Amino acid sequence: MYDHEPTLSRPGEALSHAAAIAHAADEGAVEATLASLHQLRSAVVELSTALNEALRDHRSNAAASLQRAKAMLHPVEDATPQPARKRTGPGLAPWQVRRVLAHIEENLSATLRNKDLAAIARLSTFHFAVAFRNSVGESPHEHIIRRRVERAQGLMLSTDKPLSDIAAECGLADQAHMTRLFRQIVGESPAAWRRARVNPSQ
Fold first, then answer.
1. What is the rounded end-to-end Cα distance, in angstroms, of the chain?
2. Distance of alpha carbon 9 from alpha carbon 180, whole angstroms
3. Of 14, 40, 105, 182, which is the most buried if we count CB atoms within 10 A?
């Protein structure tokens, strides 16, 4: 009746297909989790400070730290949930995402080059840049700048360091460089942002 008998998938092939689907789902979950952790990391510093002050019965200091943590978390709470990004090409494997992002976090105060990040992921510079954008949703340069600004925000809330010192600690050339990038990402100057959250009554 048929020129060719229909080909039945072997059990091993079906299992391999199911494993591939599960792996792809795991990649998406890992990337979403990493993005959330980056947004919340700085607030943990303030919450820890508040706990220490409360344990030492410094209630007013604890309350101030909690207010700063609340201010830091406010953009995360108000963010409108975005639909999952549809990849337009191959991305990084979960182990590559973990290693590259960990390296960036540990070296925000130093010079970070695409060729060094690509070497960690064991890819060419070009293929790394494309895969990173597909996995993280922004270029390596954009991600590094955003993380430096976010770290600066955390330091502005949790320390009394001058902005020039914070800029250096975040790997930025100087205070003017930090101010320019901060305005681009946050929409106001570092001094105004800090003043509104550390001394909201002023």
1. 87
2. 59
3. 182
Asked if 84 and 28 touch (Cβ cutoff 8 Å), the reply is yes
Q: Tens digit of pLDDT for each residue in 66-90?
A: 655 655 555 444 444 444 455 557 8
Grade residue 57 by pLDDT with cuts at 50, 70 and 90. low
Q: Do the domain assignments include residue 112?
A: no
What's the per-residue H, E or C state across 155-191?
HHHHCCCCHHHHHHHCCCCCHHHHHHHHHHHHCCCHH
Q: Is residue 64 part of a domain?
A: yes
Contact (Cβ atoms closer than 8 angstroms) between residue 129 and residue 141: no
* The pLDDT of residue 116: 97
- Please tell me the pTM assigned to this model: 0.62
Average pLDDT over residues 14-37: 51
The domain of 41 spans 12-78
For helices 59-78 and 11-55, give the axis angle rounded to 10 degrees: 150
111: nearest Cα among 82, 140, 83: 140
Q: How many domains does the chain have?
A: 1
